[in-house]
Amino acid sequence: MSSIIVPDACHIELDHVSVVFGSGAQQVTALSDVSFQIHSNEFVSLLGPSGCGKSTLLRLVADLLQPTRGSIRVAGEEPERARLQRQFGIVFQTPALFDWRTVRHNVELPLELLGTSRKECRRISGELLEMVGLTRFADHYPWQLSGGMQQRVSIARALALDPPLLLMDEPFSALDEFTKEKLQLELLDIKRSTGKTFLFVTHSIPEAVFLSDRIIVLSAHPGQVHSIHSVNLPAERDRELRETEAFYRMMTTIRNCFYEERDPIHVPAHQ
Q: Where does the ABC transporter domain start and stop, copy by copy (predicted)?
């Protein structure tokens, strides 16, 4: 499987984006003047407390919500056009699988909707189920699977149309720590094998540090970019990395952002 090649190294760009809900006394500013770029093949996490606008940002990129002000580009296009070009897949916190369809048929659903041949559907779903370690569960139903296995099916389905970008909204937050850490390792394997770009929403500092090339820290009320951090850890990451001094040092740097009593940093979009 080969993804669409993005002509520009800048995969996602937000330029002075604000989102305001309601009006008058009921008006709430969810995001204020947010600017940043994400480049191809990066794994970038949006990290912040509840209510800081992480999921709102993801929905803007996914064309599920429109900004009040500012502009957004995905692979050089407006989000609506990028969606129609199938430039991204989405994985939500809840797997949202169809209980009456087998694992294989859940993965094949986007392909079926495009009129892909049965033979090609079977080939692609077979590759993806092997990638996420669910080959022998292909004919099971979602209700027969654990939460972690269901989320693997969701990831495989999001990859079915081979999008160059994967948007993930707290996909592991409902899982136990053991399953979560295993899926984090598997997700990094998928990134290495596919070369895709990831925008990942989380409120977990260890998760963001372990997975990311960069972390965008958001402050709340309204949501703004507080700071952007490069994660200077080895590209090849394993479970032992979590016990290293460098890992703890990076977590401390990120954690300190949430204790600083100062105004958010306005980071230029090109950072």
A: 12-245
